Amino acid sequence: MSIPMLNKLHMNGYDVLSVNNGPWRVCTQGDRLASFTSREEAMAYAAALPGYKQRPKRVQSQNVN
């Protein structure tokens, strides 16, 4: 039985990760932005993106009339 291996880095607020030596992915909490064959390409892409900061979820107010 093999154990999945996760390589995970952070750049400008983005996750740069690879699972089981597969393609490198640049992601946010909820979106996968791009995939690359090398870590260097993924890091360069993440470095070129504007800084990411997770925004708090909005709470909708209930107007009762």
Question: How would you characterize the overall build of this protein?
Answer:
This is DUF2188 domain-containing protein. It comes from Pseudomonas siliginis. The chain contains 1 helix and 4 strands. It has a domain at 6-48. It has a 4-stranded antiparallel beta sheet, with helices on one face. Helix content is 15%, strand content 32%. With 65 residues, it is of the alpha+beta class.
Radius of gyration: 16 Å
Provide the low-confidence segments as ranges: none
Output the number of helix runs: 1
> Shape from CA axes?
elongated
Strand content: 25-35%
> How do the helices and strands follow one another from N- to C-terminus?
EEEEH
Number of E strands: 4
Distance between the termini: 61 Å
Instruction: For the largest sheet, list the strands in their spatial order.
Output: 1-2-3-4
- Main sheet characteristics: 4 strands, antiparallel
Structural class based on helices, strands and sheet pairing: alpha+beta
Averaged pLDDT, please?
85
Organism: Pseudomonas siliginis
Protein name: DUF2188 domain-containing protein
Summarize this structure briefly.
It contains 1 helix and 4 strands; from the N terminus they run ββββα.
Topology:
Elements: E1 6-11, E2 14-19, E3 24-27, E4 32-36, H1 39-48
Antiparallel strand pairs: 1-2, 2-3, 3-4
